[in-house]
Amino acid sequence: MIRSALLGTLALALLAVPAQAQSLEEVLDNYYEAIGGEDAWLDVNSMRATGRTMLGPGVEAPFVRTQKRPEMLRLEFTVQGMTGIQAYDGETAWMLMPFLGSTEPEQMPAEEAKNFTQQADIEGVLINYEEKGHQVEYLGTEEVQGTEAHKLKVTLKDGDVDYYYLDSEYFIPIMVESTREIRGNMMEIETLLSDYKEVGGLMIPHSMEQRAKGAPQSQTFLIDEVQLDVEVADSIFKMPETETEEGQGG
To answer: What is the DSSP string of 101-137?
Structure first.
């Protein structure tokens, strides 16, 4: 009798594993289809987004965000006539911040570099996540601002954890929750994604609202145009030599 009960429990446990795996697989398959397909995203070699960051009532900062495979990223934004740059060439993350009195490019501090380089993946972490060293778990459904959503726990290869919420009807991401170290403090950040538009067969959000969890203030990024497979030189992602380095080279 005891042996029979143990076998029954074992059978239930074995059945439960494929069921959960199938649920995750089903959600991800629907997600891939909703955003345009895995292969279509992997075929994109470069992407450029131009838009505006809303800094306050009537105050906008234009930006240009450029990505290129394998993992290169450059962000330019203009405030009060000055243009700041953050970039990553696949090895070195650097920045040029004239607003802070800096007139020459410099390497990003480690914590900033980590947060920035995580964004260099064109297709996002959920495509080919196992090959990239990430882990994904399906946690069921949860309501997000009145919308039922599938909740995915994503453990990145560097140990950071994000929670992705996919609309239960359309399977597109509507919110991402992250915990990151910013200026020495751990902060919970919410990113709300909306205004999805089709670009070359791919579904891309054109509005991103970011805020500290529970805070009333937020920062909104509005995308005006997305271009796929634009001609981009690798050199724009590399940190220029400073005048000091040029002098030493001479």
So the answer is: T--S-EEPPHHHHHHHHTT--TT-TTTTTTTTT-EEE
Report how far residue 191's alpha carbon sits from residue 178's, in angstroms, rounded to the nearest whole number.
8
- Total domains present in the chain: 1
Q: How confident is the model at residue 245 (pLDDT cuts 50, 70, 90)?
A: low
Q: Is the pLDDT of residue 246 over 80?
A: no
Q: Is residue 246 part of a domain?
A: no
CB 98 within 8 A of CB 90: no
Residue 249 maps to a domain:
no
State the Cα torsion 211-66-172-166 to the nearest 10°.
-40
pLDDT digits (tens, 9 = 90+) for 136-180: 999 999 999 899 999 999 999 999 999 999 999 999 999 999 988
Q: Using CA atoms, how far apart are residues 156 and 114, in angstroms rounded to an integer?
A: 12
Whole-number Å distance between alpha carbons of 192 and 167? 12
> What average pLDDT does the segment 62-83 reach?
95
Residue 55 pLDDT level (bands cut at 50, 70, 90) = confident
In a domain, 14, yes or no: yes
27 closest CA partner among 167, 147, 174: 167
Residue 245 lies in a domain: no
